[in-house]
């Protein structure tokens, strides 16, 4: 992999302190590459080979390149911008034994113990009084300093029964921010954003781990970071779209928010928003309803989310015959219960593309006695009628605050997605 690509990936991981910052990073990439910004509430005027992007509710990004044939199906790569962690509640101040703490709730399914004893801070979005009640201003917030931590309980104070148990998220994962008798989060926000406290209306704020991303290993073959799941796939998808040559098909990259909590939001994959975007693209090119329906059933989508590599310390957790390994290529994820959208048609398409371009592929199935996770693939198939295949790069420590993946796999994935975009 070129040093520029891996450096860009690590910078992206470090800069994406919230899903809002992740979306802004991607939007800035497309804007700097000459893509024109659109808005959901406008009537679009699109041109063949035109490049466009839009941001939905500050955290979902959709970018596309119009194909030569306005009636051809779409080629889509989808991922998600959010990662598991902690969201700050309203009225968050807790005063206990001289400590000042923030009241938080779990977002998604993080490995809770990996958040202990880390340098943490706060990031997200803040809504400020605007020109009218329905048009507030929004600012992104990143308090760029070590601000909080969640301290562990000393092992000497844990009974044998308590050791190894999951921490209680209401009592045992609350971060300490200081000492004293009072603290006002809005005062801190106002100071950071250089705004008046009385103009702050609301906010969506999250904790984030401030440890930087880095490569490591005998040959720097690995990288470690927070949020690799799923920003690794967001980075690969946006880079592939930027690198791809135009084709007769309209090429689309979408990074949804809220996959980690079920996708049932305006900006999530389960909403009507994405199908509306596809319809607006089709109609702006002069198609009618029947043309659009034909496009849908001639379209194909890669649902890209990280995959599990076999863990050398827990080999029994892997399927006996499907055991992805780091730096051995992208992984096709399959499940008989259709938690992944993959079927044999999808495998055939992707395997053919990979074989033509010497890109290695691996297979993942859960052990038959483990349920496993799910992604946006089946959701998109259900809500739009577009065929999907679920893929991802293999990784370790998924949902930890510090995850691990292979450098070479990022290159393979970008190549695979680019070739998919260009495929007929």
Automatic annotation (TrEMBL):
Signal peptide: none
Amino-acid biosynthesis among keywords: no
Entry superkingdom: Bacteria
Biological process (GO), any one: proteolysis
Keyword Thylakoid: no
Keywords from the named record: Aminopeptidase, Hydrolase, Metal-binding, Metalloprotease, Protease, Zinc
A Pfam family hit: Peptidase_M18
A GO MF term: aminopeptidase activity
EC number: 3.4.11.-
GO cellular component, one term: cytoplasm
Cofactor(s) for this UniProt protein: Zn(2+)
Enzyme class: hydrolase
Family per record: Belongs to the peptidase M18 family.
Protein name: M18 family aminopeptidase
Origin species: Helcococcus kunzii ATCC 51366
